[in-house]
Amino acid sequence: MDVPLWLALIVVGVLGYKLIRPPLWLVAVILLGGYLLANSSLAPLIDPLTK
User: For the whole model, what pTM was predicted?
Assistant: First the structure.
């Protein structure tokens, strides 16, 4: 069975949010920060650390 990556990430994210219940502002900060860092000049510096 082939599941698209985006669908798997959504399912894991929803389950994690329901089970752990972090504050909504923390989720928004992490998502926005990750999006902004991925499109910044710091992305090549962060990429080796995440692999």
Answer: 0.64
